[in-house]
Amino acid sequence: MPQDNTDKPYGGKGKPRKTMTAPGITAMKGSNRKIACLTAYDYATGVTADNAGADLILVGDSLAMVVLGHEDTLSVTMEDMIHHSLAASRGVQHALLVVDMPFMSYHVSVEQAVANAGRLVQEGRAKAVKLEGGGAVVDRIRAIVAAGIPVMGHLGLTPQHVNRFGGFKAQGKSAAAVQQLIDDAMALEEAGVFSIVLEAMPEETAELVTQNVTVPTVGIGAGNVTDGQILVWHDVLGMFDRFTPKFVRTYAEMGKEATAALARYCEDVRYHRFPTEKHTLHMNDEEAAAMKKIKIRKRK
Ligand code: KIV
Question: Is 92:40 a contact under the CB 8 Å cutoff?
């Protein structure tokens, strides 16, 4: 049974919880305790994930799908990410708040990548940013890190490449693909990332990548061999109606529970059962008596 590593920045059983930092996440590589990560998109989801004890909270560009209802992550904008990051930041006290750089916010030039990462920090109160890709984005990562902004990498099924992949398809399934992933992961590490997300790949692939980098890997659909795990808030809580990826464990059926609760509310309203006396405000006697003397003019 893995032990809690109480000398680490996340504290341990019975110790006050500390605020997580990017170096703190990196330091968890090789500890027995895995890094627990969740997505969140606003104040309420940020508070809930933070109170649950997440080490890292990601305002993912999955926002596009699970919050805004788009069919993929490509339409989400810098303005969307800043708006949601700022809301989440008001609820996150302890976890490291990482924010996704949206599609086309870091692709055009290194300068634009640094400027947009800076906006996520200044306007969205992000503590770190995440961006997708391997060797092709290392110049961006180097420049953003040089500006003092911690960067998280993302390899494997990178949803911003959905059209190139021909769908949301698992990656790293051949020896050649594994070689490429290891090269990419090492390039990201050399460029200065503090951690790397590995999404939708065989466990064997994720294990080899994890063994070949000194920064922690955080898996989603990459087996139980990575240094941490991340899941999307709406998937964990059964709140996304369109599909649930095979790699998700649903810990609550909140979508169904919410629908049932809201249906009870609608019925109560319809049939006069809500509000009751308990939910009703009244005037004091003096004002109630004065109100009776109000003259209501006749309609013309
Ligand atoms: O956007 C997102 O939610 C993500 C996670 C799935 C890692 O990138």
Answer: yes
Between CA 214 and CA 227 the distance in angstroms is: 11
* C-alpha 295 to ligand 1 mean position (Å): 61
Residues in the chain: 300
Its CATH architecture, for the domain 22-253, is Alpha-Beta Barrel (3.20)
Q: Where are the domain boundaries for CATH 3.20.20.60 in the chain?
A: 22-253
pLDDT of residue 16: 74
Q: Which residues contact 30 (CB under 8 A, 6 or more apart)?
A: 227
96-107: pLDDT as tens digits: 999 999 999 999
Estimate the share of the chain in helix, then strand, then coil, as percent rounded to the nearest 5. Answer: 40, 10, 50
What is the CA(208)–ligand 1 centre distance, in A? 22
What is the residue with the minimal CA distance to atom 4 of ligand 1? 60
Tell the residue number behind the tokens 């059209």, with chain if given. Answer: 163
Q: Which residues of the chain have pLDDT under 50?
A: 1-11
Say which residue the tokens 């920064």 belong to. Answer: 215
Q: Which atom of ligand 1 is nearest to the CA of 37?
A: 7
How far is Cα 234 from Cα 150, in angstroms, rounded to an integer? 26
| Residue 167: other Cβ atoms inside 10 A | 8
Residue 73 DSSP one-character state: S
> Quick count: other Cβ atoms within 10 Å of Cβ 269?
11
- Tell me, using a 6 A CB cutoff, whether residue 220 lines ligand 1: yes
